[in-house]
Design brief:
heterodimer, A: alpha+beta, Uridine Diphospho-n-acetylenolpyruvylglucosamine Reductase, domain 2, 12 strands, 28% helix, B: alpha/beta, Ubiquitin-like (UB roll), 2 domains, 6-stranded mixed β-sheet, elongated, binds flavin-adenine dinucleotide, binds iron/sulfur cluster, binds FE2/S2 (inorganic) cluster
Chain lengths: 332, 216
């Protein structure tokens, strides 16, 4: 591992200055993703700015908004009373991720900004446009069983990336329409979780729309009517401790057997947490039946495409959507 | 010994004797560090985290105050040292195992401030001011921890390599209240892999201790 200078600021402003002015500097929170990348030589910061002593750990509820500090641990959020009561979907997604040990280390901010698990991204001997811009995408015609089916563009091989964002938590946050609060050299701003991550487009090396030095300070979720009928379904290769092949966050606001509104998002299918807005709309005003859910799943799959090994996701994804909705509705 | 029970007046231990490359430059730095110790307030070790300096040390040498199994240590370390390597290579606490070194297997599980974590995925310097408990800290050959006894009774291991991690994780699993059923234990112990496949016996050992109501 390349040597680095270790810095431990206790003030937000100081931390931002340390990273925004230096392209070789990096924030570190739980370290569960970054240290892995550093050990493998994929990321090699010269300066490591430990943000764990910034006051960003609180989980608070105020007038209809739950605010979760960026340094709150995944395990703390999943066990928090207000989260369990108002947004059980988020707790469920968090509990399905990683392991007991990792959830005790992983932070909310780090979880949002974790890198893809595409094996070629980690294999420095092979081309990868995300790791090494313009080098090519090994997954396109390689092992792509776990790769994306939505939001991919493959016309330009030097720009292609079909990797997925691996977070479970972000899928729930997308369905809950959360805001992410940022603090950077230019001040503070607020961004929808759906706008934070990006599709690869012409810059597969960029995962997010954050600017250099911007720090996630918190996530906010507004009150909603979905707590009673929500479900996070994670389909994976083993019963526990594996990344999602596909996952679905489903939430319904049901009134007298009719769907007043719905929220749907998927994981394991795109370069970002994939919100299914058209499918959500298609559920509005519909009866709570399996056939309504099937129709929504059909709408959701418009534009999906496979790359060979992951073709099975074209069938698995709609089935998972239906199943998540059925469970959310309490039908099955 | 429990994490909380650090004897108040215990001597600070310095890691000089375990350092292999004791060149002169290092010796000088270390001497300075020792001289500086007299002024280090006790609260630094006890978790007075906000009193920490923003920047200190250089790229090969940073200061670390850490309590391991109730013993306080003041060390100078390379910031690249993971907590796992600190325990094994520097402090000769080899009970904590290195399996994958990438956060996948759970062999390196230790408790930091009472919570189970992976020592291979954290830099030791990030744990400044914390209290770490390793397998050496939860029981002794004369007085085993109840879960250690249960592992023996249930044959919860074969080669034994994953065992320290399993036990540290199992203790937490019970403390967290996630050992209510076989299914729950399997789910909440999924971060600890066992190549020998001793899983059924590990689950039984954990359930037995949980159901005995014994304090872990
Ligand atoms: C074996 C294993 C299995 C896993 N399984 C799952 C799983 O099933 N589901 C899942 O969702 N995740 C899983 N994970 C991933 C895990 O959730 C992430 O590693 C973790 O959430 C990252 O959080 P962290 O605080 O440790 O981030 P770090 O490693 O500290 O940081 C990650 C990145 O975010 C940046 N960063 C961190 N905090 C901030 C901030 N506040 N502002 C700006 N930048 C910041 C860092 O600079 C770094 O680039 C798994 C990980 C491992 C090792
Ligand atoms: S899918 Fe993306 S991350 Fe994977 S090899 Fe292709 S460019 Fe790299
Ligand atoms: S050695 Fe740490 S998880 Fe494998
Ligand atoms: S006992 Fe051999 S790895 Fe678990």
């Amino acid at each position: 591992m390349k040597p680095f200078q270790y810095l431990r600021p206790s003030k937000l402003k100081a931390a931002i200055e340390m990273v925004s002015g230096d392209p070789q500097a990096r924030y570190i929170a739980g370290g569960t993703n970054l240290i892995d990348l550093m050990k493998r030589g994929i990321v090699a910061p010269e300066k490591l700015v430990d943000i764990n002593h910034l006051p960003l750990k609180k989980i608070e509820y105020k007038t209809g908004v739950l605010r979760i500090g960026a340094l709150a641990l995944n395990s703390e959020v999943a066990a928090h009373e207000t989260v369990l009561q108002k947004h059980p979907l988020l707790a469920q997604a968090l509990d399905s991720g990683a392991s007991g040990q990792l959830r005790n280390m992983a932070t909310v901010g780090g979880n949002i900004l974790q890198k893809t698990r595409c094996t070629y991204f980690y294999d420095t001997a092979l081309p990868c446009n995300k790791r090494e811009p313009e080098s090519g995408c090994s997954a396109l015609e390689g092992i792509n069983r776990l790769h994306a089916i939505f939001g991919t563009e493959t016309e330009n091989p030097a720009k292609t990336c079909i990797a997925v964002h691996p977070s479970d938590m972000c899928v729930a946050l997308a369905a809950l329409d959360a805001d992410v609060l940022l603090s950077g050299p230019g001040g503070e701003r607020r961004i929808k979780i759906a706008d934070l991550h990006r599709l690869p487009g012409a810059n597969p090396e960029l995962d997010t729309n954050l600017e250099r030095g911007e720090l996630i300070t918190a996530v906010e979720i507004r009150d909603n009517a979905f707590a009673r009928n929500s479900h996070y379904l994670k389909v994976r290769d083993r019963a526990s401790y594996a990344f999602a092949i596909v996952s679905v966050a489903a939430a319904l606001d049901i009134d007298n057997g009719q769907i007043r509104s719905a929220r749907l998002a998927m994981g394991g299918v795109a370069h970002k947490p994939w919100r299914l807005i058209a499918a959500e709309k298609s559920l509005e005003g519909q009866p709570v039946t399996e056939s309504s859910f099937r129709k929504a799943a059909e709408v959701a799959m418009v534009g999906a495409r496979g790359f060979g090994q992951n073709d099975f996701k074209l069938k698995l994804a709609p089935n998972a959507i239906v199943q998540a909705l059925l469970t959310a509705a309490g039908i099955e | 010994m429990k994490d909380e029970e650090i004897p108040a007046g215990e001597e600070l231990v310095c890691g000089v004797e375990n350092r292999f490359d004791e060149d002169r430059r290092y010796f000088l730095k270390q001497s300075v560090a020792i001289a500086g110790l007299a002024f280090v307030p006790g609260s630094l070790v006890a978790g007075g985290e906000n009193a920490l300096p923003e920047s200190f040390g250089d790229t090969e040498n940073v200061k670390l105050s850490i309590a391991i199994n109730g013993k306080k240590h003041q060390l100078n370390i390379d910031p690249r040292t993971t907590l796992l390597d600190l325990l094994r290579e520097r402090l000769a606490l080899t009970g904590t195992k290195k399996g994958c070194d990438l956060g996948h297997c759970g062999a390196c599980t230790v408790h930091i401030n009472g919570q189970r974590t992976l020592s291979c995925l954290t830099f030791a310097v990030m744990q400044n001011g914390t209290k770490v408990t390793t397998i050496e800290g939860i029981g002794t050959p004369e007085k085993l921890h109840p879960l250690q006894t249960a592992f023996i009774r249930h044959d919860g291991f074969q080669c034994g390599y994953c065992t320290p991690g399993q036990i540290m994780s199992g203790v937490s699993c019970i403390r967290e209240g996630n050992a209510g059923s076989e299914a729950e234990v399997r789910e909440y112990m999924s971060g600890n892999l066992c190549r020998c496949g001793a899983y059924p016996n590990i689950v039984n050992a954990i359930l037995e201790v949980k159901n005995s109501g014994e304090k872990v």
